[in-house]
Write a structure and sequence with these properties.
The chain is α/β, with parallel strands linked by helices. The protein is built from ten helices and 16 strands. It is globular, with a radius of gyration of 22 Å.
């Protein structure tokens, strides 16, 4: 037998033996496992005191949980179809009470699941902008609020509140202007949260008009507005906020072309680390107040 062929036969035999060993050890199914992955950041202190922010994978929609010291904020609840999914995600985390529920604006991909959330959890405050629509989704949320014996509150810009040691401020909130009624994205509630040295900005579906309406503080983590649409995240706004991390909540192969290539390029040019729910699944930020650790579920 020629040496080259003999060598090839040996390689094949060794490969079969290797595969057999892997199968016996149960490693052959490793591709079926979906572990959490984490950026190489070491946090300090007691893990029970860490801030956690969950950017739930709810397709082409938004749903974010901020939790610290057993107090919780839910920002949006995905689409109608995702309502039960959001409820289960919260329940799986042991959540029974939400101190604040924020419906950033009355589009179905943000408030569709709110009625399910309202029905299933104890809630202290429900915030929504001062705009109304005749959409069925919006009316279902109103019905759920009434059935719960609650009232929707509309916060003012500059209002502050806290959960645990996390301080929150309302940066923008719709007041029912004609422009907001015509484009509900413009009515989005924008929240900025600060935990010790770290800060987080949640833009809802705010657009460039919102970004130009005020000055913005530098912020470590930016939840990108409007799923990464080119209608948001203007160059001037991004330079003001100057985040290190950008989170984009977006559905895989969505019909809107989100996120925009233009916005991805803009973020990359600024050296910002980008994390997308369509690529990672649910994304989790864990912070000790000095650093942010990023973990996710590989899709």
């Amino acid at each position: 037998m020629p040496k080259r062929r003999k060598k090839r036969v040996v390689e094949v035999i060794l490969s079969i033996i290797f595969i057999s060993i892997i199968s016996v050890l149960g490693l052959g199914k490793i591709n079926e496992i979906k572990p959490d992955y984490q950026e190489n950041v070491i946090l300090e202190g007691n893990a029970d005191n860490f801030l956690k922010i969950y950017f739930f994978d709810v397709g082409q929609a938004d749903s974010i949980l901020i939790t610290h010291n057993n107090e919780n904020i839910l920002i949006d609840a995905g689409t109608n179809e995702m309502g039960t999914t959001v409820v289960k995600k919260l329940q799986d985390l042991g959540i029974t009470k939400l101190n604040y529920v924020i419906g950033t604006h009355p589009h179905e991909d943000h408030i569709g699941g709110l009625d399910d959330v309202i029905q299933n959890f104890e809630i202290e405050h429900i915030y929504m902008p001062k705009v109304q629509t005749n959409m069925k989704t919006f009316e279902e949320v109103l019905d759920a609020v009434i059935d719960k014996g609650m009232k929707i509150e509309t916060p003012n810009v500059g209002d502050g509140f806290a959960i645990g040691e996390v301080n929150c401020e309302i940066m923008q909130c719709g007041t029912g202007t004609k422009e907001e009624q015509e484009n509900l994205n413009l009515s989005s509630i924008v929240l900025r949260a600060t935990y010790k040295e770290q800060s987080y900005l949640f833009m809802g579906d705010s657009e460039k008009e919102n970004e130009q309406a005020r000055k913005w503080e530098k912020t470590n983590v930016l939840k990108v507005g409007h799923h990464g649409s080119s209608t948001s995240t203007s160059e001037e706004f991004l330079k003001q906020v100057s985040p290190q991390i950008a989170i984009i909540s977006v559905g895989k192969d969505n019909n809107y072309g989100h996120p925009s290539d233009e916005i991805i390029k803009r973020l990359e040019q600024e050296g910002i680390s980008i994390y997308r729910t369509d690529e990672k699944g649910t994304i989790v930020i864990t912070s000790d107040g000095k650093q942010n650790q990023i973990s996710w579920e590989r899709k």
